[in-house]
Amino acid sequence: xxNFMTIWIGELIxxxxxxxxxFAVSIYVYxxxxxxxLVSIAALLAxxxxxxxxxxxxxxxxxxxxxxxxxxxxxxSVIGLLFIFxxxxxxxxxxxxxFIGVTISSVFVALLEPAYRSTVTDLLSEEEYARASGLxxxxxxxxxxxxPFIAGLILSVSDIKTILILDMATFFVxxxxxxSVRKNIPVVKTxxxxxNFFSEIKEGMKSITSDKxxxxxxxxxxxxxxxxxxIQTLMAPMVLAIADAKTLGIMESVSAFxxxxxxxxxxxxxIKKGYSRILVISLIAAGIFMALTGTTTxxxxxxxxxxxxFTALPFINTCADVLVRIKIPNEFQxxxxxxxxxxxxxxxxxxxxxxxxxxxxxxxxxxxxxxxxAGSLGRIIGTGEGRGIGFMxxxxxxxxxxxxxxxxxxxxxxxxxxITNGLVNS
Length: 426
Description:
By secondary structure, the chain is mainly α. It contains 17 helices and no strands. The relative contact order is 0.13. It comes from Defluviitalea saccharophila.
């Protein structure tokens, strides 16, 4: 656990730095362009290359030294930040250099993520997976909890260049922690000849599709990502219809503490069994709380339901994470995590692509004052701006509960844990 904690501290610092840069970049692009579309493009460029290249990073994580890949990914991701910094410093600042810089960084993060997740399996015993997953989520969520606050303070007295410098400086801490752990862990020798990305990605996919439990779990998590994409995208316009931007910012920050609460509870409890049952219960709870956010225009109730929704997410992520780890052999975990990343997060991409159109042109008009649902459902959840989004969140929350019950009542996911414990024949 000591080696894991050393790496975790480095990744926590790196996550805070990355979150500060993400916050500053969104403000910088908006101040330059006044365009929310360009801000969303910057966010997409910082996200999409990592997802698309994660299968390649996964293959490399299974073939080569995972700690070395983490060091390379961290080191070369700095190039993108340096490119943005130099562009601004030399008077060439603009939206295009930001787009190029965040894309470069995202490409190299694709090396880091699968290697980092596989390293957890290298360093820990099965009994420690749940606690480690909770800690990993705390580090990942720090970019939402800590980074905006720190970046906001810095931007009030300085500019984006200061934040870029601080983020680049975190590289020395993260690489040092990884290097110190790497010296204490023998490198597993693998056959590095005849490297064929396509065949090895195919092997990773086969590891997923050959196990009905794993493939069912991934399908379920893709649906969860799809539903989460709705609440992530639509919460802001729904709240801005009844409150101001300051209130929205406070609500989002407070709601994010739900993830921290859930992660801390998991770290304390160190769950060792009952993963499939906890997964289903957490999914049902998350679906209920998502639906409840759409039923009211009371900002305090919305915030309360959001906190509960986000509290359930770490339990979902942890149980899914552990169930995969105990089923997939360690030598395949890099490429499997790479494939899981792209397969599940397709749900986010699809949600981002359709939810705005549905809100503006389908559900929104239904619950305007003269809409077709104004005299029925509108009497219960209200009518006007944002109420169509509320209806969408109610529907997606209900669908999350339905799919949780469908997958939970089936045998495939429940037997993943039973087979590992030797309770049924594999």
